[in-house]
Amino acid sequence: MSKILLIIFYSVLTITSCSSVNNQKTPKIIHQGIDGFVYKISGNQMPIPGVETAKPFPFSTIVYFYEATNIKDVARNGTSAFYLSINKKLVATIQSDNTGHFIIELPPGSYSLFTKINNLFYANSFDANNNIALIKVEEGKLTSTVIKVDADAVY
Q: Which pLDDT score, from 0 to 100, does residue 104 have?
């Protein structure tokens, strides 16, 4: 009787271990969207002879992807790069890893990228038409970007 139970136990163990291997998902390869890094920059960034400026370091944070956003589409905190709210559709969010890296699949189009600092949205770049942190995704292409969170830097 104990031999039968032992055989059943090992059979069940073998079947479940094999099925868990078969159920593992391989990472999805993304061919269209945005592949980027987030870096935090702080301290004195002014070039001074003989003094090395502080280096950016990888920043793990949530990246927010909004429809293309113009300065007129946000509630801005004074004239800073901080925003209280964004009056455009939130398309996606993703967490950057401990190296600052993120990759996300997105349909073709233009997007504005934000991070958050102390519950305020943050983006520090504009184009000539006052579109905020604009990036374009093209059909079948992966667009690379670097987000620099430099609210604590001095230039």
A: 98
